[in-house]
């Protein structure tokens, strides 16, 4: 009977080993889909998504926490990285058509309440930046003090000039593209290799007055006012870039994106390691204390039996850790259960 159980467990374990190539192929399909270039035809609508607002010394928040307008039409299904980082992207109302440059379009009009103004004040004082993505590329903005090769991720919510806070309500998008195929072919497509922007503050009260977003007085934030009408505008320019699609992420190695992500991962990893070390140390010390008590049966004039000190885990370890009748069958079932429980949700998120 024991031989039959072992044969059955061997068949079961070999069956799960045979399923591993299928699981790996399933994961590779997801990886290939996420690493292939997205091709756009001229006139195709490109989706802009709002990711997070972050500050080097403050808590990262979702884009929806900022009282902007023109959001929440759709929510993107997050990847595993987004799920672990706590990112929740939202589809925005920017209408970017491939190859079509647009000048000063009105995104929306937001009527900010007193609470919204206080929230903007908090974001501006603490140096928050807004992260947008286009075809999975984060938005880059050139740094004013350094050369053009140095950039920062996202754009600032606003800035303080002469003790006055202004809101950046106009964005000049610059999308760098790469042609796929010959230029003479009518069916040629484009891929996005760069996503950059510049921001400024414009005091516009009505949409019809923003036909050309020229230099004007900035939109000053007054937290004591009861309400403020905020007109969000944008412009977009498409230009053919010199960077290949395979190298489009090289520009992010010179930004603070890698440094900030590395610091966050290092901090989170340190917290996890510290927590695990604390739990492990507690278990080791308790085990050492129990072993020390069992090796010292005499306490003064009283004789303490080892069986009397065996309480809790010590009392039940014999029942819990006894050898099962079919160890290989139990091992195969437990391992299969863990694989199904943890791998399938991860693949679904990816």
UniProtKB/TrEMBL annotation:
UniProt entry tagged with the keyword Cytoplasm: no
Recorded topology in the membrane: Multi-pass membrane protein
Tree of life domain: Eukaryota
Biological process terms in GO annotation: protein localization to membrane
A Pfam family matched in the record: EMP70
Gene Ontology cellular-component annotations: Golgi apparatus; membrane
Entry keywords, A to Z: Golgi apparatus, Membrane, Signal, Transmembrane, Transmembrane helix
Record keyword Transmembrane present: yes
Transmembrane region(s): 265-285
UniProt xrefs under InterPro entries: EMP70
Subcellular localization, as worded in the UniProt entry: Golgi apparatus; Membrane
Similarity comment: family membership: Belongs to the nonaspanin (TM9SF) (TC 9.A.2) family.
Protein name per Swiss-Prot or TrEMBL: Transmembrane 9 superfamily member
Source organism of the structure: Rhodosorus marinus
Taxonomic classification: Eukaryota, Rhodophyta, Stylonematophyceae, Stylonematales, Stylonemataceae
